[in-house]
Amino acid sequence: MHKFVLLLFLHEVYGRTQWTPDQAFAWFNAQKPYIMGTNYMISSAVNQLEMWQAETFDPILIDKEMAVGQQLGMTTMRIFLEDLAYSQDPAGFKNRMSTVVGIMSKYGIKPLFVFFTNGAIRNPANGIQPKPIQGAESAWASTPSANVLGDPTKWPALQTYVTDVVGTFANDSRVLGWDMWNEPDDGIDVNALMSLFPQACEWARSTNPIQPLTSCLFKDDLWTKGRNYSAFELMQINNSDVISFHE
Question: Are the beta carbons of 221 and 197 closer than 8 angstroms?
Answer without folding.
Answer: no
